[in-house]
Amino acid sequence: MAELQNDRFLRALLKQPVDRTPVWMMRQAGRYLPEYRETRKQAGSFMDLCRNKELACEVTLQPLERYPLDAAILFSDILTIPDAMGLGLRFETGEGPIFDKPVRTMSDAKKLFVPDMASDLGYVMDAVSTIRAALNGRVPLIGFSGSPWTLATYMVEGGSSKTYSKIKAMMYDEPKTLHHILDVLADSVIAYLNAQIESGAQAVQIFDTWGGVLTPRDYKEFSLRYMAKIVDGLKRENEGKKVPVILFTKGGGQWLEAMAETGCDALGLDWTTDIDDARARVGDKVALQGNMDPSILYASPERIRQEVATILEKYGQGSGHVFNLGHGIHPEVDPAHAGAFIQAVTELSPQYHK
Predict the structure, then answer these.
(1) Which end of the chain has fewer CB atoms at under 10 Å, N or C?
(2) In CATH, what is the architecture of 8-353?
(3) C-alpha neighbours within 13 Å on the C-beta side of residue 145
(4) Across residues 43-72, what is the average pLDDT?
(5) Every domain of the chain and the residues it spans
(6) What is the average pLDDT across 155-177?
(7) Which of 261, 293, 295 lies closest to 275, judged by CA?
């Protein structure tokens, strides 16, 4: 593998000195880019795009052609694991993901299995190794997975949900069934992320998109417990280098201390927590990633630059900050505004690293 020319992102995650704050964006390869929409059209469907290693590689690299980003993230979907479990995943326009075979009972749960990473999910590993080779050491490659709780919400609900009625009913009435599902998912995520690391991912992120809908007690029992199990099971070194692990619970700002206890290297923050507060609470234990409100990208480039300046100032001096949005970039954002954001980070952050 080619020697890494820009390791700012990995260094910041390990709280090592950097010359400026590294920056990338969640969903940086996506619908806000016209070139992505072209490639998606060519692929036929979203999952066909994920399954085609050349096209997945092409869309992963598209944002890097436009912006001086410090990391690339594998182009894939968080639902690849439940899809590989044979639950009949399809994407309906305007409705998002739908599972034809939702998991609602203990007998459904007992049919779940850890997918075979080579045969069932080999297309993801092919994409990872293809992208890693194409990057040729330009920036590190991030692999990722959904958290067990987040994956389970889709599997039990049968798709997206606003109320989480089915999974919460299961959690309160049939906790054994839910724990069984979450256990199989945690084992699957461990195998999945380790296979991505072996295929060339240089850092990994666990997306706990729906952890924030839980009470503090239930978050610890049904979400954090399984992310901690994953962190324990991950390969933390590859090719003689550390492989940092980032945990991101959207809406999880009140649980940062408990999250930092898992042994992860960094926590993703959404925009509902002030980064100075987060740093005061856990910044001696973990690096922090975030946390600009993605909606600020609808504002003028001048206003975006002010927001970047504010967040940098709030984090303050020293390493341990990866600049990012507090969630994925919205599809309607003008690519020039994303460019203004990234330019502001690269121009304004060196003063914090003297």
Answers:
(1) C
(2) Alpha-Beta Barrel (3.20)
(3) 32
(4) 97
(5) 8-353
(6) 97
(7) 293
Per cent of the chain over pLDDT 90 is: 97
Residues forming a β-bridge with 267: 247, 288
Catalytic residue of the set 77, 126, 218, 293: 77
248, amino acid identity? F
d(CA 82, CA 228): 20
Q: Report the relative pairing of strands 241-242 and 96-99 from DSSP bridges.
A: unpaired
Respond yes or no: is residue 77 known to be catalytic.
yes
Residue 1 has pLDDT above 90, yes or no: no
Residue 215 pLDDT exceeds 90: yes
- Residue 237 buriedness (CB in 10 A; 0-12 / 13-18 / 19+): exposed
Asked whether residue 143 carries a pLDDT value surpassing 90, the answer given is yes
Query: Of 154, 192, 219, 226, which residue is the catalytic one?
Result: 154
List, for residues 309-327, the tens digit of each pLDDT value: 999 999 999 999 999 999 9
Q: Once rounded to an integer, what is the mean pLDDT over residues 212-229?
A: 98
Q: Give me the catalytic one of 31, 66, 138, 236.
A: 31
Its pTM surpasses 0.90:
yes
| Contacts of residue 147, Cβ cutoff 8 Å, sequence gap at least 6 | 189, 206, 207, 208, 209, 211, 223, 226, 227, 230, 249
Contacting residues for 346 by C-beta, under 8 A, at least 6 apart: 20, 23, 68
Query: Annotated catalytic residue: which of 11, 27, 104, 279?
Result: 27
User: Is 27 an annotated catalytic residue?
Assistant: yes
| Identified catalytic residue from 8, 11, 40, 279 | 40
Lowest mean pLDDT among 57-71, 93-107, 237-251: 93-107
Cα 49 to the center of its chain, rounded Å: 18
CB 31 within 8 A of CB 39: no
Q: Let me know: does 245 contact 234? Beta carbons within 8 Å.
A: yes
Whether 104 sits among the annotated catalytic residues: the reply is no
